[in-house]
What we know:
mainly alpha; 3 helices; 81% helix; globular
Amino acid sequence: MSExxxxxxxxxxxxxxxxxxxxxxxxxxxTRRNKLSKNEIYEIQRLIDEHREG
Length: 54
């Protein structure tokens, strides 16, 4: 198992256990306490766009 696969599994487990699998709930909780940089916002939007395009 690669490190990337391991980290993805750990992240998914945390999301499921802590936020009932809801990425929007996690994101809302995270951004309430942490200000995102313009670069982070750009990267998140890029990931959303890639996912949307399939």
